[in-house]
Amino acid sequence: MATEAAKKIAEELFKQLPKVAQKCGGLPQAMLPSLSPATGHWRPPLLGARAVAKLRKDVLLSGREWPWEQERTTSPYKTRMKGHKRERESLKKQEKIAANMAKMDSIIADFRANLKVKAKNEQESMMEKILMNPTEIRKKRRKAT
Q1: What residues form DSSP beta bridges with 43?
Q2: What is the pTM of this model?
C-alpha cells in the first residue's frame, strides 16, 4: 500500500514536472548555480540538492527515466588510504623484534654476569650492616664505584 501511495505521489509530481520546470526557468538550469551578469556573483541554484534528489527519486519510483542522469565519475588517481600507523609499521616492528630476539641469549648472559659482579662488590660484612646506617652504606658503595 505504501508503494501505491508513493507511485501516486510520483505520478502527480511527474505530471507537474513541466510546470516546475517552467516556474524555475528550466529544470536543468534550476539545479545548477548561476553567475549573475549584473553583479558578477554566483547565485545558488533555485532547487537545492535535497529537493532535486527527492524529485529524482520520485520520478524513478514511478518507473520513468530521469532525463538529467549524470554518470558517476571516478578519480584517475589511485588513492590509497593512509590507515593506522600501527598497521603501516607492523612489518618493521616484527623485523626489529626478530633481530633483537636473536641477540637475546647474549644480552641475558651479559646481564647475569654483571649481576654477579655487582653482588660481589656490594657485599658488606655483617658487622658493617649492623653498625652502619643506610646512608653510610650508600656512601661507601658510591666510593667503591
Answers
A1: 34
A2: 0.38
